Structure formats: structure tokens, C-alpha cells
């Protein structure tokens, strides 16, 4: 047997091999029933909520521990006994709960028993906390789960529906203002949370029943209640109800719902939907008026409510932006006259609005950063608006300027008022000045063109430093520091720092001058009491690089003592600073002169130029000097001398002038060489309405920094600096990026320069091209081209729909033009029965095509490039692209309406009007090139007059050479070749001169073009003389009787073919020597009958002139239909607004196709109005009408002027009709046509503007 050693055996030999084994602890056997009975008594007391002493409570822990420790089956036995006890307890509770059938009583009894059970579940499991049952460590929760499971199975699962029904009634009662017991609802919610059968998802039953029903009843309740409230109250009162209920529901949710975020989020979504979203449109409508009324409480309610919605707040942001912008601009407009002349009021006006809306955002919108961003955007629009205050900045393009806001200039002027000795700075304390300067910096951050501000500020700083008019030099340094922190140009800030440093340097140099003079005077043998003039001088040595006025030096003759002192100072400067050169800037110099008159002695502050003029009278104080003598004596430029003389003879706000003159009206333009000037010995100064014997007066006024000769250079300074800064930014970016797409480069340049000014895309592209041309930057690499191509592809995919819609609208416009304008060209030929409708259609289709291809591209380019200023759309090409759709829609719709009404309107007018309307709706009056509009409008008035005059001249020639002759038939045949010669020569010259870009005809010199056209005309003349003329004579003599006449009232030639009338006799027209007799002889007889044979001659040539008219129409008006489409295609292909390429030939052909379709379908309607209804037309008059209109149209086409062939033709019809048969013109129809012309432009403009705004807002 093995023995065990006690722990006290400490002496054991190392060689002892006896094995020592510890025997396991002897197990204690207990009686489970005895222990459990003792524990059960305590458990039952706990269930009955009896008082259990601390000793008994600890005893329960000990009993449970002993059972589980010493009884191998103790755990199972405890589980079974506890399950039985809990079941008995819950069954008793169930009986109590079901003892009453009323649902509300059941709820109360349930909550009473549940509260007891819940408290028991929190304490009873504690003795089992450290006991391991079935390997589960958290035995406390295991017992609690057992209790909840029994309660759920026996009570809750059967009563949960009844419980919720009672809860719903209680919640509804509470919402209706009835007081309830909140604990009842809280207890039920706790049951739903704790009694879930699925322990892996404890909130399953809560979410599926309690929360879902809670949300449902909330939604149902407020759908009914909000409708009732909204019907009884206005939307503003509803806002208070909405806010109250949102707060109530939030508080109610925190009491009755589980604390998980998802429950609160879902309830908020439901309450927002029923209380806010369904009335959101009505609420949003009130936002603008509430902002206007500054109704902070209601705005705060709206912000709180809409902030919980998904996208409604964006509308409030848009309204606030629009309101601030409109309010700011309208306020500026109302006070334009005051504000424009008073920079203090301008800045105060902006600051008042800024503070007003900042306070509104802080109070009503809780200082939300989104609203402050919108405020900044709106104020940037107001500050940079050119509607009220604008200035013109010249560009490199002659005659074109950029319009900029005057805000930078006004801010600089205000800053000058604060920093110099002015009335404003004198009445303000130092703290107030600092505050106003800080306020100015707030406004300055919204200014785009900070470079303009800094330019004006630098000029003001120069004046203050030169005139020593600054209030505090430290404040000057402070403001320059602030400009540096605002991101102003570093080089300009550096120059201003050097300007301030010059003041300290000048103090040292002036001290050096005085020291040197004193040493020199001490070394003299004889003492002199005379004070050296140099002691009276305060010399300012300015760094030319910082002050930047090196080209403004003007020589002037000064006092001899001054000249000597200047040479002395210059010598001292060269002695101290060897190698440096001094240039005296006389226009910046000034001094004080004592002026003695009969009324006293006065100290006058004068500029150097004024002193030079007054010094001329030093030796002849009583004499008079002419303008020419002063010019020779002072050596001043004429412009500077006249300005100086005006300041001495007509200085504002003083009653007595220093100089007098014999010029009646003192103005620089009125001074002649012989104009005399003399000293005013009775000069005086008035103060308090009394003449003073002593006083001081400043006659300098505003110091002239720049000489007149450099004014143009100063105008170009801003443009040059912007170009250089853009080039610098591009170069910096490309050095970092190595390669970059055009779009990314533009964005980075804007980002880099935005603190100085906002460069537009056109400026950036011009500088990129310049850097590439100058080889400063390499051309775009392959990878960059690929990137740009991808960007272009994206752009094209986005706007492809616009190109398709544009093509359809262009076809519709061409259709309307064919039905209207082309009908004008052939109306006279059909009206005189020379051509049938079918023949006119065929010839029109052929010659319209030839005219558009050979000549029409000039007008196309004029229409699509010159009417509006496309550079304004450089940053938004899509807007201009959509604008072409609006142009096409506006013009085509009006043209179709006019065609149906049988009005021969002008497509040119329609296109120009629609283009102007589109640009006005987007860019205002700045978007239109008004000089181009004026030129086109003048052409509309001039073209019918010119065309009519040409037609009258030709008809008069026809009348004198043919119609009034004794044998008009033979005379007509004689002049026929000459008419063919003139027509074809002119037409040929119109085609070949300047060439045709479309089909590749090169430009031909003027002399060669005339020669070729003349040669073709001669060939035509010979062919007509020897081929056409004999055959035409034979055909007419065979088909038309010799003595057949056509009356002036007869239109159809065929109607008179077999009609023999008596040969009319007319008294021969003779001149009687008077003017009236001359015109009577010159103009045709109105009642003359025309021989039918003669008219047959002109019917042959009228076919040719009709083709000529069709050619001219195609050359001019086809361009109008396809100009917007050509622009669309250019935007689509290039992705920008440059439109550098010529109009593609397929675009012209597309326009011709649309025109031909319109002509064949509806052309007969307008042909009837022009050719028959307005005036009687025969072949002779029809020939002259068509030829005159065609000549006028072709001349305009070659000049690139988009005139109206409609105007030309109608003008010719009226003019020729007046001299032929004045009583035969239907003036009613003519008035209707003129009326249609007048309303065409504004109507198309309105339609186009409306379509443009609709498309812009929609897309």
C-alpha cells in the first residue's frame, strides 16, 4: 500500500525513491431536499415580495452554492424546482389579470403583475450568478431568461394583441390632450422588448408589433388631424401647430419607444412625412415672404422641420440666394445716384445688408454653414454686378471692352477716405476707423476683380504718402498686411511695403542733407543770416520699381533757386549713393507759397506746375501774359498747361481766383494762343462770410499721378497684368503636372487666380496658345490629347439630343422659309404668267442650291458669329448650344404662322430677333453686339428702298428704250442682248469675286474678276444677238398677232393671244423745260397699253431674272435657316464656342432640301399675295422687279450683311407699281405686310426668350 506524506515532513533524502501521491479531497454528502426546503422558503418570500433580512439573503447564496457544489445533480434539480415554482407564480398572476374582461382593466392588472415579476427578475437570479449550470457561465441571465420564457408562454403570447389595443387607445387619448398613466405604456413596451422568443433578435417582436403599430397609428392620427387643422387655420398658424407636434412626438418617442436609434429614426420619418412633407409646397411658398418680413420664429420652425427632410432645404437655400441677390441689387438701384458718388454710403449699404442677413441666418437658421455659403454666393453676385455700377476695361480686340463692376474702385476710394486726412477720418475715433477697415475687408472678400481694387489702392497710397496725408503710418502697414492675408498679388504687396519703407529712408536722407549743409556753412569764412532754400525742402527719394512711374517724367521750368537746390541735392545723393540716377517727378511735387495781395497775406498749397505758372509773373506782377508766352516760359505740355491754368482761374468752391483771364468761358478747349492771364491783386479768402487777411488754401486738389501722355498705357495696364498672371499660373501648373488636359488646366488656373480675379476660359485659351507659339510651353502631349478627347466625348454624348432636336427644328425653319421667302422670289414670275407653279418650283430648287453653295457661307458666318457676343458664354458652352434650339424654335414657329396667314415675312428678321431674345433672356443687354444689330436693322430699311430705286431705274430705261418707241417690238429685240449681258456679268462677278470657301474656289483679284465676268457677259451678248434673238423673233411673229395689246389691268398673257384690239394712240411725251415737265417726260404713262409681242420678249428674259432672283435668295436667306444649326454642329464637334471653322457644305445642302420641301408643299399661298394680289405685274415690270431685288441681295451677300430678300422684292413691287399704276396697288395688303415686318422681330424675340428660359430651368 502506498503511503502519503504530510506536508510537515520536511527532511526527505534525495536518494529516497518512495513515490508521494496526494489523495483527492473527500466529497461531502448532503441532503438536497433539506437544503432546498430552506432555500425555497427564502425564494417564495421573494416572490411574495416579503421582507428578507440580509442574513437570510446571504443564507440563500450559501444554500445554492452548497447544493451545486456537493450534489452532482444539484443543478438539474434546481432548474426543475425553479421552473415549477415560476410556473405556479405566473399561473396565479394570469388568473388575477384575466379576472376582468375590460381591456383597459386587463392592461392595468397586467402592468401591476408585470412590474412585480420584472422586479423579481432583477433580484432573484443574483444568488445563481457564480454557479455553473450546464457549462453556461452567465447563470444569472439564464435564470432570468427562464422566468421571461415562462411569463411569455403563459401570459404575454395570449395577451399581446389586447395589450397593444389598449396602448393605442391611451396614446390617442394623450395626443388629444387627455391625461393618462404613462407607466402603462412604458410597461407594455418593456414587455415587448424583454419577452421576445428569439433571443438572438431580442427586438424582433418589439419591431414587428409594438413599433410597427405605433408608427401606423401615429401616421393615421396625424393624417386626419393635420387636414382638420390646415382647413381651420392658415399656413403660418399651421407652422406653430407643426412645430409643437414635432416636439411632442419627439418627447413621446423618448418615453414610449425603445432607446435604439432606429426606432427614433423611423418615428421621425413618419412624423416628418405627415406633418411636414405633405404641406411642404405650401410651406416653401411662404419662405420668401417670411424672409422679407424677417419673421425669425417661423423661419426657425421651417428650418427645424425641413432640415429633417431629404431635399426640401435646397429650395430654401435657392430662395434665400435669390432674395439676397434681388434685395441687394434693388437697394443699389434705388440709391444709385447717392451711392455711386459716395463710396462710404456704398460700403455701408453693403455692410448693412450683410449684417442683416448674417443675423437672420444666425437666428433663424442656427448659423448653418450652408446658409452662410449661400449668403456669400449672393453677396458675390451683388458686389460684382454690372447692372448698377460698371466700368469698361479695354481688351486687345479693337472696339471691344470687358464690362467690370465698379465695386473695387468704390472700395478703394472708401479705404482712402479712412486712411487719409479726410472729413470722415476726422470725425471717427481710432477704434471706429479700425472697425470700418475690418468691415471693408469683409466686403473685399466678395470682390472678384481684386487686381482692380489693388491698382486703385496703390494709387491712393501714392497720393497719401507724397502729400503726407495719411493719418497713421502703422495703420497703413496693418492694411497692407491684411491684403497679404487676403491673397492679394505678392509682387504688388511687396511694392507697397517698399513704398512705406521709402518714408524712413527719406527721413534719413533729409537729415543727411541738413547735416551736410550745416557743415558747409560752418566752414564758410563769412557768416550769413540768409536761410538756404534747401533747408525748406522735404525731399522724397522714391524707388522707381515700387512706385512704377518711370515713363511719366515731364520737364518744367521752375524758380532759379529751386533749380539750384535740386542740383545741389542731386550732387549730395550721388555722393552718398554712387552709381544711382535721380529723375525729378515734377507732377508729384508740391509746396507752399506766400501770396501777398491787397487784402492780405495767404499761404497757398500749390503743385509744381502751378508754382511754375505763377513764377512767370515774378518780374511782371502787374503785366499780362498770353497763353503762348506761358507755354514758352514753363515748357509744360499743352494739356498740362491748360489743366493748370484752369485750376488757377476757375478753382471750385472759392470766390476769388489767383489768376484772371480774358477768356469768357474758362475751359481748356477755349484757351487760344492769344488768351491773356494776369495776377489777381485783389485775391482774398472768405471764412464765415468775411474776408480774411490771413489764411491758408489748398489749390492742388487731387494729385495727378500719371501724365496725360500715358493714360492709354494705364488703361491697358489691367489687361496686361491679367494676361501675365494667367501665363504665370499656366506655367507653374504645367511645371508641376508635366501634362494636363485642357479642362483640368482651366480649372486649376481659375483656382490659383480666384483671389485676384476670375479668368474666363477665352483668356486662358488665348494665353495657352501664346505660350505654345512662343515655345515657352510644349505642345499638348498624346496622353493629354487623349484626356481632352475623352472630355469632348462626354460633352458630345450629353448634348447629342440637342443636335438631333436642332436638326429637326432647322428643317422646320427651312420648310417655313421655302413656303414663304422663296415664294417671294418667284411670285412675280408666276404672277405675270411667265412661269407655271411647277416650273417655278423646279427652277427655284436648282438656283437656290447654287446660290447657297457659291455665296451663302458669308451670311451664315455673319449670322452665327456677329449678332451676339459669344465670348460671354465661354464658360458655359451648353447654354449657348441650348440657345440655338430656342432660336430655331422661335423663328420657325413664327414663320409657319405667317405662311398660313399669307404674310411674306422676313426670315432674316426672325432669326436676328430670336437670337437677340435668347441672349437677352440669359445675359441681358450686355450679351448683344448692338452695333451689328444696328447695321443689320439699317439694312432692312435701306434694302427695300435701294431695291425699289434700282427697279425703277431699270423700268424707266425699259420704258424709254422700248415701251414708248414707235416700234417697241424691234426696239425690244435690239436691247435684249444688252439685258442678258448685264444680268450674267453681274451674276458671274458675284460668284467668282472673293471665291467660295465651300467648294474651294480661290479668291480672285478684283481686276481679274471683272475681266472674267465681262468676258462671260460678252459671250452671252453674242450668243443672244446671233442665236437667241433671230429664233425668238420668228417664234413671236408666228405665235402672237402683230396688233395685239395687253391692257395694264390684264395679268394673263394667254388671255389675249387671239384678241385683236384697236391700236391705241398716245400723245408723244415731250419736255417743256420745267421740272414738272421733266418728270412727266421721264416717268412712264400710267394708262399705256403694252404690245403683247414686246411682253413676250420680256417673258423670255424674266425666266432668266427669276433664276437670278432665286440664286440671290439662296445666297442670302438660306444662310439664315442653317446659321443656328451650323453653330450647333460647331459646338458639338469642338466642345467650345469658338466657331473657327467654315460652314460645312452638307449643312447648306440640308437647308436647301428643307426649303425645297416647304416650297413644293405651301409655296403657292405667298406666291399669290406677292405676284397677284398686291399689284398688277406684267413681264416687263416683273423683269425689272426681280433684277433690282436680285442685285441688292447679291451685293449684301458679298458684304456679309444678312438683309431680307422679302424686303427687296416687296419694295421693288411697290416702287414699280407706283410709277406704272399707282392706283393699282392694294395698299391694304401692303400695310398688312409692313405690319407683319414690324412685329416679326419682337415676336420671335419673345418666343425665343420664353423657350430659352423654359429649357434652361428644365435642363
UniProtKB/TrEMBL annotation:
One of its GO terms (molecular function) is ubiquitin protein ligase binding. One of its GO terms (cellular component) is membrane. InterPro entries: Cullin-like_AB, Cullin_homology, Cullin_homology_sf, Cullin_N, Cullin_neddylation_domain, Cullin_repeat-like_dom_sf, Phos_transporter, WH-like_DNA-bd_sf. Gene3D superfamilies: Cullin Repeats, Cullin, Chain C, Domain 2, Winged helix-like DNA-binding domain superfamily/Winged helix DNA-binding domain. Coiled coil: none annotated. The chain crosses the membrane at residues 799-819, 840-859, 879-898, 937-958, 978-1001, 1007-1028, 1118-1133, 1145-1167, 1187-1217, 1229-1256. PANTHER family: PHOSPHATE TRANSPORTER (PTHR11101). Belongs to the inorganic phosphate transporter (PiT) (TC 2.A.20) family. Belongs to the cullin family. This is Cullin-5. It comes from Strongyloides ratti.
Amino acid at each position: 500500500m502506498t503511503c502519503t506524506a504530510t506536508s510537515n515532513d520536511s527532511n526527505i533524502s534525495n536518494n529516497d525513491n518512495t513515490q508521494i501521491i496526494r489523495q483527492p479531497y473527500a466529497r461531502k454528502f448532503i441532503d438536497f431536499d433539506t437544503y432546498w426546503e430552506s432555500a425555497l422558503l427564502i425564494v417564495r418570500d421573494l416572490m411574495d415580495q416579503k421582507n428578507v433580512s440580509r442574513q437570510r439573503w446571504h443564507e440563500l447564496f450559501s444554500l445554492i452554492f452548497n447544493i451545486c457544489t456537493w450534489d452532482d445533480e444539484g443543478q438539474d434539480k434546481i432548474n426543475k424546482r425553479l421552473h415549477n415554482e415560476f410556473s405556479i407564480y405566473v399561473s396565479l398572476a394570469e388568473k388575477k389579470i384575466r379576472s376582468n374582461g375590460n381591456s383597459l382593466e386587463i392592461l392595468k392588472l397586467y402592468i401591476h403583475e408585470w412590474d412585480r415579476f420584472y422586479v423579481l427578475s432583477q433580484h432573484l437570479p443574483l444568488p445563481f450568478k457564480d454557479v455553473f449550470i450546464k457549462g453556461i457561465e452567465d447563470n444569472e441571465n439564464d435564470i432570468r431568461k427562464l422566468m421571461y420564457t415562462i411569463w411569455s408562454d403563459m401570459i404575454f403570447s395570449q395577451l399581446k394583441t389586447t395589450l397593444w389595443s389598449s396602448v393605442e387607445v391611451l396614446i390617442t387619448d394623450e395626443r388629444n390632450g387627455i391625461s393618462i398613466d404613462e407607466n402603462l405604456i412604458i410597461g407594455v413596451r418593456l414587455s415587448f422588448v424583454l419577452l421576445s422568443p428569439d433571443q438572438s433578435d431580442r427586438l424582433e417582436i418589439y419591431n414587428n408589433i409594438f413599433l410597427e403599430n405605433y408608427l401606423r397609428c401615429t401616421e393615421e392620427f396625424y393624417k386626419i388631424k393635420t387636414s382638420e387643422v390646415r382647413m381651420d387655420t392658415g399656413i403660418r398658424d399651421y407652422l406653430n401647430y407643426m412645430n409643437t407636434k414635432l416636439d411632442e412626438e419627439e418627447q413621446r418617442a423618448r418615453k414610449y419607444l425603445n432607446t435604439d436609434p432606429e426606432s427614433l429614426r423611423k418615428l421621425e420619418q413618419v412624423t416628418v412625412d405627415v406633418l411636414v412633407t405633405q404641406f411642404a409646397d405650401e410651406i416653401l411658398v411662404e419662405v420668401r415672404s417670411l424672409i422679407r418680413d424677417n419673421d425669425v420664429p417661423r423661419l426657425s420652425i421651417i428650418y427645424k422641420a425641413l432640415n429633417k427632410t431629404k431635399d426640401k432645404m435646397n429650395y430654401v437655400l435657392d430662395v434665400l440666394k435669390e432674395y439676397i441677390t434681388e434685395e441687394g441689387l434693388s437697394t443699389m438701384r434705388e440709391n444709385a445716384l447717392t451711392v455711386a458718388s459716395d463710396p462710404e454710403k456704398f460700403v455701408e449699404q453693403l455692410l448693412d445688408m450683410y449684417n442683416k442677413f448674417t443675423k437672420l441666418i444666425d437666428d433663424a437658421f442656427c448659423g448653418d454653414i450652408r446658409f452662410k455659403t449661400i449668403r456669400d454666393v449672393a453677396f458675390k453676385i451683388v458686389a460684382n454686378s454690372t447692372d448698377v455700377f460698371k466700368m469698361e476695361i479695354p481688351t486687345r480686340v479693337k472696339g471691344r471692352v470687358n464690362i467690370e463692376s465698379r465695386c473695387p474702385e468704390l472700395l478703394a476710394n472708401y479705404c482712402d477716405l479712412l486712411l487719409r486726412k479726410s472729413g470722415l477720418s476726422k470725425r471717427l475715433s481710432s477704434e471706429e476707423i479700425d472697425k470700418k477697415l475690418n468691415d471693408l475687408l469683409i466686403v473685399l472678400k466678395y470682390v472678384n476683380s481684386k487686381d482692380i481694387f489693388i491698382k486703385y489702392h496703390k494709387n491712393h497710397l501714392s497720393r497719401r504718402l507724397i502729400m503726407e496725408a495719411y493719418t497713421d503710418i502703422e495703420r497703413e502697414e496693418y492694411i497692407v498686411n491684411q491684403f497679404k492675408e487676403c491673397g492679394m498679388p505678392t509682387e504688388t504687396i511687396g511694392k507697397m511695403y517698399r513704398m512705406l519703407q521709402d518714408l524712413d529712408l527719406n527721413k534719413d536722407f533729409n537729415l543727411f542733407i541738413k547735416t551736410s549743409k550745416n557743415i558747409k556753412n560752418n566752414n564758410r569764412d563769412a557768416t550769413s543770416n540768409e536761410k538756404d532754400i534747401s533747408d525748406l525742402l522735404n525731399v522724397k527719394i522714391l524707388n522707381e520699381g515700387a512706385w512704377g512711374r518711370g515713363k511719366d517724367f515731364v520737364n518744367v521750368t521752375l524758380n532759379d533757386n529751386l533749380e539750384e537746390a535740386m542740383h545741389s541735392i542731386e550732387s549730395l545723393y550721388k555722393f552718398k549713393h554712387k552709381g544711382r540716377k535721380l529723375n525729378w517727378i515734377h507732377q508729384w511735387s508740391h509746396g507752399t507759397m506766400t501770396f501777398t495781395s491787397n487784402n492780405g497775406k495767404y499761404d497757398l498749397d500749390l503743385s509744381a506746375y502751378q508754382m511754375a505758372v505763377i513764377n512767370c509773373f515774378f518780374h511782371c506782377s502787374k503785366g499780362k501774359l498770353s497763353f503762348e508766352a506761358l507755354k514758352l516760359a514753363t515748357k509744360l505740355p499743352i494739356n498740362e498747361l491748360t489743366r493748370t491754368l484752369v485750376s488757377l482761374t476757375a478753382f471750385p468752391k472759392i470766390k476769388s481766383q489767383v489768376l484772371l483771364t480774358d477768356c469768357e468761358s474758362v475751359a481748356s478747349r477755349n484757351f487760344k494762343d492769344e488768351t491773356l492771364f494776369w495776377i489777381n491783386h485783389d485775391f482774398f479768402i472768405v471764412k464765415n462770410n468775411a474776408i480774411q487777411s490771413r489764411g491758408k488754401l489748398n489749390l492742388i486738389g487731387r494729385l495727378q499721378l500719371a501724365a496725360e501722355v500715358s493714360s492709354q498705357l494705364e488703361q491697358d495696364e489691367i489687361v496686361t497684368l491679367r494676361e501675365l498672371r494667367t501665363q504665370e499660373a499656366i506655367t507653374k501648373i504645367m511645371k508641376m503636372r508635366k501634362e494636363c488636359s485642357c479642362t483640368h488646366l482651366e480649372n486649376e488656373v481659375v483656382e490659383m487666380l480666384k483671389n485676384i480675379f476670375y479668368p474666363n476660359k477665352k483668356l486662358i485659351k488665348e494665353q495657352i496658345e501664346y505660350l505654345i507659339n512662343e515655345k515657352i510651353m510644349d505642345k499638348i502631349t498624346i496622353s493629354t490629347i487623349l484626356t481632352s478627347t475623352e472630355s469632348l466625348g462626354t460633352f458630345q454624348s450629353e448634348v447629342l439630343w440637342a443636335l438631333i432636336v436642332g436638326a429637326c427644328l432647322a428643317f422646320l425653319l427651312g420648310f417655313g422659309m421655302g413656303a414663304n421667302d422663296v415664294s417671294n422670289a418667284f411670285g412675280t414670275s408666276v404672277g405675270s404668267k411667265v412661269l407655271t407653279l411647277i416650273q417655278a418650283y423646279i427652277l427655284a430648287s436648282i438656283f437656290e442650291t447654287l446660290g447657297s453653295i457659291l455665296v451663302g457661307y458669308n451670311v451664315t458666318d455673319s449670322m452665327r458669329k456677329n449678332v451676339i457676343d459669344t465670348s460671354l458664354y465661354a464658360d458655359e458652352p451648353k447654354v449657348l448650344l441650348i440657345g440655338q434650339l430656342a432660336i430655331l424654335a422661335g423663328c420657325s414657329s413664327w414663320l409657319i404662322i405667317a405662311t398660313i396667314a399669307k404674310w411674306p415675312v422676313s426670315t432674316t428678321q426672325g432669326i436676328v430677333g430670336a437670337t437677340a431674345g435668347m441672349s437677352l433672356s440669359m445675359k441681358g443687354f450686355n450679351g448683344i453686339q448692338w452695333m451689328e444689330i444696328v447695321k443689320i436693322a439699317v439694312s432692312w430699311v435701306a434694302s427695300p428702298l435701294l431695291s425699289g430705286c434700282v427697279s425703277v431705274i431699270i423700268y424707266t430705261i425699259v420704258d424709254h428704250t422700248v415701251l414708248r418707241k414707235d416700234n417697241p417690238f424691234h426696239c425690244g429685240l435690239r436691247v435684249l442682248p444688252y439685258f442678258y449681258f448685264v444680268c450674267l456679268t453681274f451674276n458671274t462677278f458675284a460668284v467668282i469675286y472673293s471665291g467660295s470657301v465651300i467648294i474651294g474656289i480661290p479668291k480672285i483679284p478684283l481686276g481679274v474678276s471683272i475681266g472674267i465676268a465681262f468676258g462671260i457677259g460678252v459671250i452671252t451678248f453674242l450668243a443672244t444677238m446671233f442665236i437667241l434673238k433671230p429664233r425668238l423673233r420668228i417664234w413671236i411673229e408666228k405665235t402672237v398677232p402683230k396688233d395685239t395689246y395687253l391692257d395694264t389691268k390684264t395679268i394673263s398673257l394667254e388671255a389675249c393671244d387671239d384678241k385683236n384690239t384697236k391700236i391705241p394712240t398716245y400723245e408723244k411725251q415731250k419736255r417743256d423745260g420745267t421740272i414738272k415737265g421733266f418728270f412727266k417726260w421721264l416717268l412712264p404713262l400710267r394708262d399705256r397699253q403694252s404690245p403683247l409681242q414686246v411682253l413676250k420678249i420680256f417673258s423670255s428674259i424674266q425666266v432668266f431674272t427669276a433664276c437670278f432672283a432665286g440664286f440671290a435668295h439662296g445666297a442670302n436667306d438660306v444662310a439664315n435657316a442653317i446659321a443656328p444649326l451650323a453653330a450647333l454642329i460647331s459646338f458639338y464637334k469642338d466642345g467650345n464656342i469658338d466657331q473657327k471653322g467654315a460652314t460645312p457644305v452638307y449643312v447648306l445642302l440640308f437647308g436647301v432640301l428643307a426649303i425645297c420641301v416647304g416650297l413644293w408643299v405651301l409655296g403657292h399661298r405667298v406666291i399669290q399675295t406677292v405676284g397677284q394680289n398686291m399689284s398688277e405685274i406684267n413681264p416687263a415690270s416683273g423683269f425689272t422687279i426681280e433684277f433690282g431685288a436680285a442685285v441688292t441681295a447679291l451685293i449684301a451677300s458679298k458684304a456679309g450683311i444678312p438683309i431680307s430678300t422679302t424686303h427687296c422684292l416687296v419694295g421693288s413691287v411697290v416702287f414699280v407699281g407706283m410709277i406704272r399704276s399707282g392706283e393699282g396697288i392694294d395698299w391694304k395688303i401692303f400695310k398688312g405686310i409692313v405690319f407683319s415686318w414690324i412685329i416679326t422681330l419682337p415676336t420671335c424675340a419673345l418666343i425665343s426668350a420664353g423657350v430659352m428660359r423654359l429649357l434652361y430651368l428644365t435642363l
